[in-house]
Amino acid sequence: MSVPRRVRTGSAAALALAAALSGCATMQEGASSRADPFEPVNRAMYAIHEPIDTNLVRPLAQAWVDYVPRPVQSAVRTFFGNIDDGFSALNGLLQGKWDKAGDDLGRITVNVWGLGLIDIASEAGIPKGEEDFGQTFGFWGIPQGPYLFVPLIGPTTVRDGTGLGLRFYLGPLGYVDEIPLRNVLYGLGALDRRAEALDASAMVDRAAIDKYTFIRRSYLQRREYMVHDGNPPRKDDDE
Questions:
Q1: pLDDT at position 101
Q2: Which of 20, 47, 101, 128 is at a distance of 20 to 30 A from 94, taking alpha carbons?
Q3: DSSP string, 40-81
Q4: pLDDT for 170
Q5: How much is the pTM?
Q6: How is the chain split into domains, by residue range?
């Protein structure tokens, strides 16, 4: 089955990336339940997601890392990283973060010299802005809304999920008319993101008794950290 125009296959990488930056931070259960009013449904979705990721997606990602030549992996990561930088630049501008937007635009300009497949910008020390539509909505004061877990996409919220949908709709791959090529590109992007998160997945496996709760806490705290550029306001119910 082909992927409809402007619809991108979700990457399970969000699951592990959320855990990667969590450290040992915790929330009070009251705060967690308010953020996750649909917990029974979300847990059911996670129960669907986990065996698919464990038995299919993760082994594919590991095979990508183990057997695909490193230059090919790097070229794929740089290609999709340039798209990320473009959206980050746009969201930096929407938030008035001129330095971040400038860095992202600079990264794209420099990487053109590598045909978009060699990450010259990182070698030159130009940082990634790492802004997205969910962060922009948060910057504008839009509440995050309930936590959601979507199979093969991972943790999100109403706010972040809306931003993710907007990004997919506006993404350049949606303009690729050749359906097989477009689907291959979507698949490569999802596979690369999942491969990038393999170490984080292993950490979740080792550290968490209740993986669902660990992932939820990690994701929500990481997103709050990103919306506030590393300086989130302390809340009354924080531990």
A1: 97
A2: 20
A3: HHHHHHHHHHHHHIIIIIHHHHHHHHHHS-HHHHHHHHHHHH
A4: 94
A5: 0.81
A6: 13-17+36-227
* Structure tokens given for 164: 């993710």
Write out the two tokens for 60: 């594919």
φ/ψ (deg, to 5) at 111? -70, -15
DSSP string, 156-212: EEHHHHHHHHHHHHH-GGGG---HHHHHHHHHHHHHHHHHHTHHHHHHHHHH-SSHH
Beta strands 147-150; 154-157: pairing state: antiparallel
Residue 184 near residue 157 (C-beta atoms within 8 A): no
In 3D, which of 196, 218, 197 has the Cα closest to residue 207? 218
Hey, is 132 helix, strand or coil? coil
Q: Match 């299919």 to its residue by tokens.
A: 56
Where on the phi/psi map is residue 92: left (φ > 0), alpha (ψ -120 to 50), or beta? alpha
With a CB cutoff of 8 Å and minimum separation 6, the contacts of 162 are 133, 134, 137
CA 112 to chain centre: 24
Q: Which candidate, 164, 153, 158, 165, places its Cα nearest to that of 215?
A: 153
- 149 membership: H or E segment, kind and range: strand 147-150
Question: Element (H or E) spanning 88, and its range?
Answer: helix 70-94
Residue 4: per-residue pLDDT: 40
Q: Kindly tell me the burial class for residue 239, based on how many C-beta atoms sit within 10 Å of its own C-beta (0-12, 13-18, 19 or more).
A: exposed
